[in-house]
Fold this protein.
Amino acid sequence: MAAQGSMNSAVSKVIGLSEATFVVHFSATILMLVLLILSIGQGNWSNFYQLPWYYYLGGLIGVLITYGVVISIPKLGVAVATTAIIVGQVLTACLVDHFGFFGLEKIPFTWLKFLGLIFLAIGAKLLLN
């Protein structure tokens, strides 16, 4: 993630934020098209409409994450931005687990997990100094 974010930030400096985000997702789309062509018959497109519409928002969230990474790395540095992203991801993961979002099994948020998040946040703060 640190290398990818750094490369995306470098692209952004040369061609712009929106343009870099487009290039990142366009190149990923091309790779996925090739992989889909090479693995014909591996999936089941007929089930596409069986999921709730909001499950397909992951791609939009991916664009927002890419924007956030590209903006934050030049301002904060790779280590701090990556650590902040990881803290946010772990916090979000704990909430998804606790509430069982997206049909996942509920895994309770415990005091030990809370303590782990505190230590992650302290580590992020120490990197800022």
About this structure: The helical segments are 2-15, 17-38, 58-76, 78-99, 111-128. The chain has five helices and no strands. The radius of gyration is 18 Å.
